[in-house]
Amino acid sequence: MGCFGCSGISGEESEYPRNKNKKRNDNSSNKNKPQRQANSDSSKESIKKEESPNSEQLLLGVKNFALNAEVSVDGKATKAAHSFTFEQVIAATGNFRLDYFLGEGGFGKVYKGLLEETNQVVAIKQLDQDSLQGTREFVAEVSTLSTAEHPNLVKLIGFCAEDEQRLLVYEYMSLGSLENHLHDFKPNQKPLDWNTRMEIAAGAARGLEYLHVKMNPPVIYRDLKCSNILLGEGYHPKLSDFGLARVGPSGDKTHVSTRVMGTYGYCAPDYAMTGQLTFKSDIYSFGVVLLELITGRKAVEYSKERRAEYLVGWARPRFKDRRNFSQMADPLLQGQYPMKGLYQALAVAAMCVQEQPNMRPAISDVVNALNYLTSHKYDPNNCVQSSRRRKTASLVNINQAKGAVADRDFKSF
Ligand SMILES: Nc1ncnc2c1ncn2[C@@H]1O[C@H](COP(=O)(O)OP(=O)(O)OP(=O)(O)O)[C@@H](O)[C@H]1O
Ligand SMILES: [Mg+2]
């Protein structure tokens, strides 16, 4: 049974994944989107753990959570999410007006809204009813985002849990998702330029670093992908959708055992095969997103025969020879990128998607490497970049990781 996408990672192709989780994936507007799926191969015990709480208990958890405003991050008290009535949600969305519809994912439909009380523009996500997994994700989302505060994480303004209704109210991200700008092109839409792509990667890495290193307890995101990176004014990126997030391993434990959940093409092979979730599972997904930004290719491309080609499987043989690198760049960039920056970005991506989780860098090293990269902006009028040839501590760290091409490219700084 294919581990949703990861079976094709070391090889080039695999069968088109069968849709086992019909409710979540069977919506027509999502036909071309990366598909989320749970892997039923993982141990019975961990499956049971994921399925045991009933929705009433979970909902009670959310309500209690909202009352407990003193949840702390780094020892500081944070404000709990606001609880909205369904009437307030109806007023905000004009009763879910069609022209307020923003998009639809596995959780349900998303609408733009205006909160009358504060005059704030928001995005409101309505959970498909009767979905137990959805209720679980709803609780995880509220609990993770209520305790988190970072410029690269989308803000949860509140939620509504009245009768059967489950809704999440977020800050509105005016430019939609990275997916919209990279893959779901509208006619006349300008492709993202190199500097913006690298800024988006660096911002997303900073959001992930906050979850991994700065939150207390640390959190594994588990759902990093282009559609979950939302863009605000100036393409400022924020991570969204924390429904699958899990508190990371504590003490001397190295992993958390869970039912395998995620999205085809983004899931680390080690996690898909064992159900053992680690911070390095997120690093792998980050590497896939970085590869998408560099190459313009999707995490999984389906041929006419509905066979899947995974981006990592496509990229790995090309990492072996730097003469391939310029051919890996997104043709829509039309050559407008710095050659050295391309090598460095590919080096970071190659490290992140390594097969062995312990060979992948820690997120703080990725952040430092990408901060360095973005501090040397590409200027098409001045192709010989005036970058000072200095090595940051993080790059030295990354160099120390054993792996493919990446070493050579960072050494050539
Ligand atoms: N806070 C927001 N501001 C603006 N648009 C949003 C916001 N949240 C979601 N959207 C829009 O709604 C669409 C659907 O989002 P949603 O998170 O439900 O699905 P998804 O990320 O595409 O899939 P998945 O359920 O697998 O995460 C997104 O593509 C995005 O364009
Ligand atoms: Mg999403």
Computed over alpha carbons, the radius of gyration is 21 Å
Number of strands: 19
Helix content: 25-40%
Oligomer designation: single chain
CATH architecture of the largest domain: Orthogonal Bundle
| CATH superfamily caption of the largest domain | Transferase(Phosphotransferase) domain 1
When the domains are counted, the total is 2
Which structural class should the secondary elements be placed in? alpha+beta
How much of the sequence is in beta strands? 15-25%
Detail the poorly predicted runs: 1-33, 37-55, 65-78, 385-413
> Mean pLDDT, nearest integer?
77
Distance between the termini: 44 Å
Bound heterogens, unique: adenosine-5'-triphosphate, magnesium ion
CATH class of the largest domain: Mainly Alpha
Characterize the overall form: globular
Q: Which sheet architecture does the biggest sheet show?
A: 6 strands, mixed
GO molecular function: ATP binding; protein serine/threonine kinase activity
Region (Disordered): 1-55
Pfam families: PK_Tyr_Ser-Thr
Biased composition (Basic and acidic residues): 42-52
